[in-house]
What does this fold into?
Amino acid sequence: GYAIKTSHTMFRRKFLTILLIWTYSSNGRGLKTTSESLTIKRITSEWREICNQNITLSEPFNSSREECGIRLSPLRSNLLEWHFSFTGMEGSPYEGGIYHGKVRLHHEYPRKAPSISLSTPSGRWETDKEICLSASSYHQETWNPNWNLRTLVLSLRSFMTTQPREIGGIDSSVQIRKSFATLSRQWRCRVCGISHNNPCASNALLTRMDLRDRILTRKKTSTSSKPTNNSSSSSPTEISKHQKSHLMYRQMAKYDFSRIGKFLLLVQASWRCYVL
It folds into this structure.
């Protein structure tokens, strides 16, 4: 009887351990909300930095002395899809060309690497096919969350001059690549509507004004949620109580109660298991 009770107790311990690991894994419901919040914050931070550096797709190339040769912006309808353009490297068969592509972010970005593809015919990569890079979704094991979209596009631009040995690369003659570089300036994206032959703002892309409007909307929302000092409607004691409840609500909103509830239930079940 003692051996049977001991085996049952060990089974319960192993089962609760597995359940605890599953609850706090990336597939659990608790971390999903946290991951989505992290993704939104990261995208907003990168977009603000890109706007400050004047490298959005609405900015023409060679408009400043500090030209890096890349432009990128997210879609207005989908922040997980970014479009980019870059100029061909000087002294290469791609010099004089402008190439357009897409970056599709994982819903757990920056924890998971994004995928990247080129839409403009270049003679270097297949069009609209994911390119294998150490910083792309083909190699999640080598992805570093400290990397960002700007460095990803910059690395693709410099990687363009290497030999095509990766997935998605094609080998073509220098003459074909030069002809594609000439035709690339006439190319137009069917999704975002960007054409570098006649650069203009696209309604499909997020703009600097959209970022400013979102910041102003957040400020107005936070201001409107604060209690007003109206002596005719409430006394000073009632106002202070309202302020206390508002601050308490804001502190409570920082926590994910789905995770806390699961954790407390597991602690209680584990304690009962070890007591038995």
About this structure: Residues 88 and 95 are 4 Å apart (CA to CA). The two ends are 14 Å apart (CA to CA).
